[in-house]
């Protein structure tokens, strides 16, 4: 397992510089249709608390970055998600704000709410996310997933 701790201690910043030479996204590529179907599979895997099933949605060399660290490879991602399920992750509600397709790559982003039933009671964690899906062997897989917590509302 390869885990690189975040140097920002609680904040996660991801910058993705993507394929400057790739063709312009086509308007009729149905990126949102693909992403909606993929998101349904992702949410089902989380709800089933099956880390192996969830990890299968990632490429072998995928990277998942969040405030807990940088998880490189499907095995590291699976181990991280197993820990989350043991900590009480129950489900994840994902909303998609946008998606663009260019060839066999989709860039998408949105928000999520992670529902946790911990020993101290139920919690909801809200985050912004960004992802890169790639088509491999006629199947879409996550190559990159980043998650940044939504800060709590400021007190007045």
Detailed description of the structure:
- The chain is 22% helix and 46% strand.
- With 156 residues, it is of the alpha+beta class.
- It has a single domain (29-149), classed as Nuclear Transport Factor 2, Chain: A.
- Strands 1-3-2-7-6-5-4 form a 7-stranded mixed sheet, with helices on one face.
- Residues 1-28 have low confidence and may be disordered.
Provide the succession of SSEs. Answer: EHHEEHEEEE
CATH class: Alpha Beta
Average pLDDT score: 85
Query: Uncertain runs with pLDDT below 50, 5 residues or more?
Result: 1-28
Structural class: alpha+beta
Helix content: 10-25%
Q: Gap between N and C termini, in Å?
A: 43 Å
What is the alpha-carbon Rg in Å? Answer: 16 Å
Number of helices: 3
Major sheet attributes: 7 strands, mixed
Count of strand segments: 7
Strand order of the largest sheet: 1-3-2-7-6-5-4
Tell me the CATH topology: Nuclear Transport Factor 2, Chain: A
Work out the count of structural domains.
Answer: 1
The best one-word shape is globular
Task: Report the portion of residues in β strands.
Answer: over 45%
CATH architecture: Roll
Comma- or semicolon-separated keywords:
3 helices; 22% helix; alpha+beta; Nuclear Transport Factor 2, Chain: A; 156 residues; single chain; seven-stranded mixed sheet
């Amino acid at each position: 397992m390869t885990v690189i701790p975040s140097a920002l201690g609680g904040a996660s910043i991801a910058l993705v510089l993507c394929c400057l030479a790739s063709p312009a996204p086509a308007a009729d590529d149905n990126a949102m249709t693909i992403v909606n179907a993929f998101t349904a599979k992702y949410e089902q895997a989380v709800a089933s608390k099956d880390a192996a099933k969830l990890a299968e949605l990632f490429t072998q060399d995928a990277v998942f970055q969040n405030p807990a660290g940088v998880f490189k490879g499907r095995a590291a991602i699976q181990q991280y998600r197993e820990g989350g399920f043991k900590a009480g992750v129950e489900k994840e509600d994902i909303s998609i704000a946008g998606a663009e397709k260019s060839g066999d790559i989709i860039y998408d982003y949105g928000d999520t709410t992670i529902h946790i039933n911990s020993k101290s009671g139920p919690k909801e964690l809200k985050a912004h996310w960004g992802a890169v899906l790639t088509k491999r062997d006629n199947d879409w897989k996550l190559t990159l997933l980043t998650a940044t917590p939504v800060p709590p509302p400021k007190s007045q």
